[in-house]
Amino acid sequence: MENVHLVPEEEEDDLYTGYNDYNPTFDGEDLHNDEGFQQAVRTSHGRRPPMTAKYPGTAIGGRPIGTAYGEDSCQGRKGEGLQESRIPVGTAMGRPMTGAVQDGAARPMTAVRAAGYSSSIARGSVFDPLGQAKGPAPPLETRNEDTPEEKIKILEKKVNDLIEESCLAHARGDLQLSLEKAKEAGRKERALVRQREQTGTADHINLDLTYSVLFNLANQYANNDMYTEALNTYQVIVKNKMFSNAGRLKVNMANIYFKQKNYTKAIKFYRMALDQISNAHNAMRIKIMQNIGVVFIHMGQYSDAITSFEYIMSESPNIKTGFNLILCYYAIGDRERMKKAFQKLICVPLGIDDDDKYIPPNDDPHANMVIEAIKNDKLHQMERERKALAEKYIMTSAKLIAPAIESSFAAGFDWCVDMVKGSQYVELANDLEINKAITYLRQRDFKQAVETLKMFEKKDSRVKSAAATNLSFLYFLEKDYDQADRYAELAMSADRYNPAALVNKGNTEFVKEDYEKAAEFYKEALHNDSSCTEALYNLGLTYKRLGRLEEALDCFLKLHAILRNSAQVMYQLANLYEMLEDPHQAIEWLMQLTSVTPTDAQVLAKLGDLYDNEGDKSQAFQYYYESYRYFPSNISVIEWLGAYYIDTQFCEKAIQYFERATLIQPTQVKWQLMVASCYRRSGNYQKALETYKDIHRKFPENVECLRFLVRLCTDMGLKEVQDYATKLKKVEKMKEIREQRVRSGRDSSARGRREGSAGSGSSSSPINTPPLRASDSGQSNHGTSAKGERLSVKLKTLPGSNEPYEASTQQEIDASYVDPLGPQMQRPKTAARKRTEEDEFADEELGDDLLPE
């Protein structure tokens, strides 16, 4: 205790005491005069190892321990015991030895050696306190994978990897692979459980892994429409009390029952899931209630569905639930509640920012860059989608309930427009007005539709352009091309970038046959909207009229890349290849057309005509016969089939076709003559004679019929031959007189024209050109140049030996029919967006898609 120095109480608060005290031990100014220090520096005097081996005991045992520069003064004397000298030996500097007594007080020795210093270090060694000179550390011991615990860990990792692979395969759309991976994960997990049971570690089974495996397997079963297996797997999870919150999976089971149309069980499981979900998860409960309402709608229980939807609208209103509630009220015919539900629907908050947020407020470049960055980000896209969905539901609801909530649909639309104007969807009011006009169009009330659309002439540019476009469309359909042109100009002035307005303007120029100008408008429409298929189609028709067939072909090939299954485009391509004298490509496109419209009789007839021109009679017969089967009233097809059977010496089969032609054209004597000729060729002279007599009763002045009657009666030795011969002479004489009168009339008219031209000093004589038939007017290629042009089919009657009515030059029988795509194809298409999908391609139907994009 004598070496313990207590601090006085008055100095307890002074933490810096003693810092200014001077210790002479650290005085290095006189070291060069210290002989001991200089001796130690020059020699190894101070590095002698301590002589401790000859003294027993510890460092505290009583022997003196010197410092690096001191010597121990302990000496043994002969005949005497060991004695210690406690006199310390100081260094030349006066530094006290370790363990020496200083100022009469013994300093305690320390057993801790300073880091990096050793009294027994070898001479010439390097200072290496961290032991880096020993080389790198030995490698870690390899893990022994043969232990049961390591095997279990590896197996667990494999199961997790399989679950992940199954989920990734489902995300790629490979449902079969995802199911296989889920099954394999299930097998591995069962093997893992068995291994734990064998090793006696069943208490450490990973329940989360088991739950993940079963849940993923059930999901993959459901995705592959294996509903029974999915339900069984979900039952395994739900019945296991060790899985927490497994009752929520009853929602998935209810969804499967809904897909199976087992609505009763779906309701049961939805309600069971609802009971197991606490009120803290309100969003989940709302979704389940919405599903319950949808199931009730499918069951036709609208009152129960209304109860669910009304609860949702009172707790957490949303657009879909409000729309479904309106549908239920409409189904039960509750007019007042429909109005209230519509008012609730337009008051549902969307939770999105206004578009003003994305308008640059000033000229700050940094702020503008931020606005440009967020203008098209994922969040803004989601906001736009949510707003578009809300507008769609509101528009559909208004169009649905407008005729039901008031005495007339016009009054209902007006009520809906008034409600919308006072809501956050005020811009939808104009669209509702346009839909009102379209409803008038569907009711064939064109006057009211036009009046409604004319109300928008003084509105803003967007609405004015849309209304003017529809008015131009209407007047174009009514063939009032001046008004159509006027409103097309108005639509263009309101919005020059409106492609529908430009298409309508091009259409008006097309009907004026100003094809170059029409093409310019179509090109401008395509420049503003490259997906405007109407402009591209009409541009192809325009090039076709201008004779620029290669450019027209390029337009329709581009259009075919957009509209892969458009029958109109395929027909135009086939027709263009035919005009370019490439029948093989024309046949190829028509074959594709038959895959889209396999029952179009005119397309099949066109294929038969092309094969006939190529000389392939068997293929031509096949397609003509299919055409006749679908449409047995086409005269040209009937004529070709009858001539084919006569050519192949099957006159009996040709009779049925000519008899049908007789039914279609009873005033045409040539079909009845062909029937009689077929009877005569087949050797049935009696039937032929009866047929000729019947023809003579209907057409008593027909020379060919009388000639055949004379010949048949002569060959058969009948007495009526003289009567028929007399009638034949009279008819021939009357025919000669008639022809003389016609020739004299022509001669007198020609002389009068010559005299008139001579009196006027003209030296040229007019040439009286007889009118050309359709087959003589440059359209004798047996094809249709476009929709609306007529097709001429020339089939020669087969000559017979010594037959009076066939002895003259081979006659051509002309039969014209409308081409496969009807009389409206060549007219340019209007700006309507939808087309009908019938086999006969009419104009676009009027609908909501009249609005420009």
Automatic annotation (TrEMBL):
Keywords: Cell projection, Cilium, Cilium biogenesis/degradation, Cytoplasm, Cytoskeleton, Flagellum, Repeat, TPR repeat
Any one GO cellular component localisation term in the record: non-motile cilium
Domain of life: Eukaryota
Amino acid composition bias (Basic and acidic residues), ranges on this chain: 736-756
Native source species: Cyprinus carpio (Common carp)
The TPR repeat ranges on this chain: 247-280, 286-319, 499-532, 533-566, 567-600, 601-634, 635-668
Protein name: Intraflagellar transport protein 88 homolog
One Pfam family in the UniProt entry: TPR_12
Subunit details: Component of the IFT complex B, at least composed of IFT20, IFT22, IFT25, IFT27, IFT46, IFT52, TRAF3IP1/IFT54, IFT57, IFT74, IFT80, IFT81, and IFT88. Interacts with IFT20, IFT22, IFT25, IFT27, IFT52, TRAF3IP1, IFT74, IFT80 and IFT81. Interacts with IFT172. Interacts with IFT57. Interacts with IFT46. Interacts with IFT70B. Interacts with C2CD3. Interacts with ENTR1 (via N-terminus). Interacts with LRRC56. Interacts with DZIP1. Interacts with CCDC38. Interacts with CCDC146. Interacts with CFAP53.
Location in or out of the cell: Cell projection, Cilium, Flagellum; Cytoplasm, Cytoskeleton, Cilium basal body; Cytoplasm, Cytoskeleton, Microtubule organizing center, Centrosome, Centriole
Alphabetical list of InterPro entries matching this protein: TPR-like_helical_dom_sf (IPR011990), TPR_rpt (IPR019734)
Alphabetical GO biological process terms: inner ear receptor cell stereocilium organization; intraciliary transport; kidney development; non-motile cilium assembly; regulation of cilium assembly
Biased composition, class Acidic residues, residue ranges: 838-853
The protein's role, per its UniProt record: Positively regulates primary cilium biogenesis. Also involved in autophagy since it is required for trafficking of ATG16L and the expansion of the autophagic compartment.
Gene Ontology MF annotations: kinesin binding
